[in-house]
Design a protein that fits this description.
The protein has 284 residues and is an alpha/beta fold. Helix content is 44%, strand content 16%. The chain has 13 helices and nine strands. β4, α4 and β5 form a beta-alpha-beta unit. The longest helix has 15 residues. It is globular, with a radius of gyration of 19 Å.
């Protein structure tokens, strides 16, 4: 059995959908905070059990019988995510899982200034020490483009701090590849990176947006501190704004610059480029 956590979220839920295309439903389980929200999976024969990273006993129950467990990383800025991930890893080991897969992040290496990187680095270290086989899925940035680029369609500007090349990746394709790893005969040991085929900058995206819309879209580089102040003025907590600023700092330092081939290999096709996704976004 394969058990997926976070199955009522975007990535986890999409991964379960792809698993259902690859194997019988009775070989799939989900561990979710609110079982009622996963009723649509239960109706299709998926085993649904309540479990959260704060509840070791419930996790062990929800992981029971699992050969593989997919741990979708938590993102609560107020929680001690490293300790919560430790609880989940220990529960998977105690439940007898033979492999643990974890949704990590591209560039999860020492020195990366992006704050969540430290969580992923420490979690990967715990997986390495767990005594069972493990895979860290270092996913490229897959946030929706309207969140990444801001209100450029209204303003005609991509007005953000200085950046660097990033292979912005389609979350749907990451989920498809994750299911392929879980259900496939080929195992990946340690880190594997899933990204789109090409890394681009906001300058590149402004040019692409201009070509696609037929109007000039300007790239405006904002001062870091001014950007933080602007975010705070719109109601974003300063701590959250400064955490996001570290992502731009990591991008400009090159921590996300390398595109990897594994996503294409698992999909059996070239992944969508960010320009493909931008064109689709404009069309909606």
């Amino acid at each position: 059995m394969i058990v997926v956590t976070g199955a009522t979220g975007g990535l986890g839920g999409a991964t379960v959908e792809h698993l259902l295309e690859r194997m019988p439903a009775d070989r799939i389980g989900v561990s979710v905070r609110d079982a009622a929200k996963a009723q649509h999976f239960a109706d299709r024969g998926v085993r649904v059990r309540q479990g959260s990273y704060e509840e070791p006993a419930a996790l062990r129950d929800s992981f029971a019988g699992a050969e593989q467990v997919l741990l979708v990383s938590g993102n609560d800025p107020a929680a001690d995510m490293v300790e919560l991930h430790r609880t989940a890893i220990e529960a998977a080991v105690e439940a007898g899982a033979r492999r643990i897969l974890y949704t990590s992040q591209q560039g999860a290496v020492p020195g990366n200034p992006y704050r969540p990187s430290e969580i992923h680095i420490r979690t990967e270290a715990m997986l390495s020490d767990s005594g069972v086989a493990w895979t860290a899925l270092r996913n490229g940035a897959y946030g929706p483009l309207d969140q990444v680029l801001g209100p450029w369609q209204r303003t005609g500007e991509i007005a953000l701090p200085e950046d660097g090349p990033v292979p912005y990746t389609d979350r749907a394709e990451v989920a498809e590849a994750t299911a392929a790893v879980l259900a496939g005969a080929r195992s990946f040991d340690g880190p594997v990176t899933f990204t789109a085929p090409t890394a681009v900058t906001f300058d590149d995206l402004a040019e692409a947006a201009s070509d696609l819309t037929g109007r000039t879209v300007k790239r405006v580089v904002l001062d870091d501190e001014q950007w933080v102040a602007d975010q705070v003025a719109t109601g974003v907590p300063e701590q959250a704004a400064r955490s996001m600023l570290t992502w731009y700092q990591a991008a400009r330092a090159g921590y996300f610059a390398e595109a990897a081939p594994q996503l294409a290999e698992l999909l059996g096709r070239e992944p969508r480029t960010v320009t493909d996704r931008l064109a689709a976004h404009i069309a909606t």
